[in-house]
């Protein structure tokens, strides 16, 4: 079973294959079944992909995809038994609540978004069985209606991020801008909203690693930056994964801010 564009697709075995297998009886050895990953996370992304905010939504979608690609590379480098994918839903077409229900149905364990108070209220109004375990909102100054919703700290005004590092950008921020600008599709320069979207996806995954689960405990693992302990940027995600796997608290020095991650115990 695979998740494609928010829809669950069941791959059927052909009748001919089934008949061959049954005719072989016990002489055909059973195929080895790959074990389930210890962390198997689907990130659900609620974005405005239509309407007057579609431009911001499309650029944020690109940032989210870049985050997943960097995280999957880091998972491979760390050689840990984790899997990660992302499913996007248009929160402007039929509303945030509908988009969230679709993502929950697709197996999302962490939702990125929404970006407006009305969207947060729509999430809070969902029946408990349909509410996501964890939401990480990349929008500043929103009141979280549930403990399981993590709101990133306030950021400055919306602006473009420089890729040349020539106007006071931290090195990791300038590197992110260069990566964004050089990645297809060409949309335009990275903005602060794209940086927050990137960090929200990274925090979804790192919070699951810190908690050791894709359940509600993920929200409890995210907090303010730690005074002590190792700091890791998005350029050193494999080291951050290994530190969390070893039970060490860390600070993720993201593109848009710093966030503490603390394993339980």
What number of structural domains do the residues give?
Answer: 1
Residue stretches low in confidence (pLDDT < 50, at least 5 long) are: 1-31, 140-146
> Could you tell me the radius of gyration in angstroms?
20 Å
What's the CATH first level? Answer: Alpha Beta
**Strands, count:** 11
CATH superfamily: Response regulator
Distance between the termini: 35 Å
SSE ordering: EEHEHEHEHEEHHHEEHEE
Short description:
The protein is an alpha/beta fold and 265 residues long. It has helices at 15-24, 54-78, 96-105, 117-124, 171-182, 192-211, 217-220, 237-245, and strands at residues 2-4, 7-9, 39-47, 82-90, 110-112, 135-137, 149-151, 222-223, 230-233, 250-253, 258-261.
Fold and architecture overview:
The radius of gyration is 20 Å and the shape is globular. The longest helix is centred in the N-terminal third of the chain and has 25 residues, at 54-78. The protein has 8 helices and 11 strands. A 5-stranded parallel β-sheet has the order 4-3-5-6-7. A 4-stranded mixed β-sheet has the order 8-11-10-9. The two termini are 35 Å apart. Helix content is 37%, strand content 18%. A hairpin with a 2-residue loop joins strand 1 (2-4) and strand 2 (7-9). The protein has one domain: Response regulator (Rossmann fold), CATH 3.40.50. The protein has helices at residues 15-24, 54-78, 96-105, 117-124, 171-182, 192-211, 217-220, 237-245, and strands at residues 2-4, 7-9, 39-47, 82-90, 110-112, 135-137, 149-151, 222-223, 230-233, 250-253, 258-261. With 265 residues, it is an alpha/beta fold.
């Amino acid at each position: 079973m695979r998740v494609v564009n928010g829809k669950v697709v069941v791959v059927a075995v052909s009748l001919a294959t089934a008949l061959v297998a049954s005719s072989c009886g016990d002489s055909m050895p059973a195929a080895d079944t790959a074990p389930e990953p210890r962390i198997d996370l689907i990130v659900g992304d609620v974005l405005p992909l239509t309407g007057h905010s579609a431009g911001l939504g499309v650029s944020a979608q690109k940032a989210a995809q870049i985050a997943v690609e960097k995280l999957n590379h880091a998972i491979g480098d760390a050689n840990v038994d984790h899997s990660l994918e992302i499913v996007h839903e248009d929160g402007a077409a039929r509303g945030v609540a509908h988009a969230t229900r679709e993502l929950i149905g697709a197996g999302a364990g962490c939702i990125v978004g929404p970006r407006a108070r009305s969207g947060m209220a729509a999430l809070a109004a969902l029946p408990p069985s349909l509410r996501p375990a964890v939401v990480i909102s990349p929008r500043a100054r929103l009141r979280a209606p549930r403990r399981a919703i993590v709101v990133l700290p306030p950021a400055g005004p919306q602006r473009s991020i420089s890729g040349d590092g020539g106007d006071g950008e931290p090195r990791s921020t300038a590197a992110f801008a260069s990566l964004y600008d050089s990645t297809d599709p060409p949309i335009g320069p990275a903005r602060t909203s794209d940086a927050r979207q990137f960090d929200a996806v990274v925090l979804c995954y790192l919070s699951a690693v810190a908690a050791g689960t894709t359940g509600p405990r993920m929200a409890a693992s995210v907090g303010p930056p730690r005074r002590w302990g190792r700091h890791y940027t998005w350029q050193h995600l494999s080291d951050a994964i290994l530190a969390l796997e070893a039970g060490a608290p860390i600070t993720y020095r993201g593109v848009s801010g710093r966030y503490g991650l603390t394993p339980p115990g």
